[in-house]
Amino acid sequence: EDQVTQSPEALRLQEGESSSLNCSYTVSGLRGLFWYRQDPGKGPEFLFTLYSAGEEKEKERLKATLTKKESFLHITAPKPEDSATYLCAVRGGGFKTIFGAGTRLFVKA
Amino acid sequence: NAGVTQTPKFRVLKTGQSMTLLCAQDMNHEYMYWYRQDPGMGLRLIHYSVGEGTTAKGEVPDGYNVSRLKKQNFLLGLESAAPSQTSVYFCASSPITGTDHREAFFGQGTRLTVV
Question: pLDDT digit string (tens) for A38-50?
């Protein structure tokens, strides 16, 4: 059964304190791993798609990496405006896209 | 550029009442989806559509029905609301490019409370 587990559930950082969020997955025939950002009261907003192990993508202070079993979202020198819930999702051989429960990130000035 | 628009944004229903949630997208996307989001459980797929006139069941379809009569609209219906359907509902759409699954664009959500 396809499954996505995100850790930690919540992460509190000081401004400028770099860290990583983890997304562990099991899926039959990975067709894509997605990272989304979700602000309170809003819908998820797309960040990255990764397709194969070893792939990396960057956007401002965020960098996503992928291995055969997990993905990391690295946050370098975060700012308070990076505070949000970060969602990971995977799509396997079937149609379904499975979402993790998310990591709530709090960045304090 | 509106993207994906959901109406209404908030609704309170009594147990047993019915209602329809409307999702409209202006990006000419083929795929549309309805998800529900509950605390600690992530987004779960209710129903989806791969094109006008088509619908299919997702992970948690019971108690819901959908229709896609026009490409740009995807309706989610609750025939007889139950407290277990209290949730935040998100509609999303995505394009397709060959066999690549592209990212989904989400609406702002509908917060539904069933009392």
Answer: 999 999 999 999 9
3-state secondary structure A53-76: CCCEEEECCEEEEECCCEEEEEEC
Put simply, the answer to whether A101 touches B104 (Cβ < 8 Å) is no
Task: Tell me whether strands A103-108 and A10-14 are parallel, antiparallel or unpaired.
Answer: parallel
Q: Indicate yes or no: CB of B100 within 8 angstroms of CB of A96.
A: no
For chain A, count helices (H), then strands (E).
0, 11
All residues of chain B having their beta carbon less than 8 Å from the beta carbon of residue A42 are: 108-109
Mention every residue, 6+ apart, whose C-beta is less than 8 A from residue A30.
A51, A52, A90, A91, A92
What does the alpha-carbon distance between residue A23 and residue A26 come to, in Å, rounded to a whole number? 10
- Report chain A residues touching chain B, CB-CB < 8 A: 4, 31-32, 34, 36, 41-46, 49, 87, 89, 91, 95-97, 99-102
Instruction: Band the pLDDT of A94: cuts 50, 70, 90.
Output: low
The residue among A93 and B107 whose pLDDT is bigger is B107
Looking at the partner chain, which of B48, B59, B101 has a beta carbon nearest the beta carbon of A32? B101
In three-state form (DSSP H/G/I as H, E/B as E, the rest C), the secondary structure along A81-92 is HHCEEEEEEEEC
**Which 8-state DSSP code applies to residue B17?**
-
Q: Do A96 and B103 touch (CB under 8 A)?
A: no
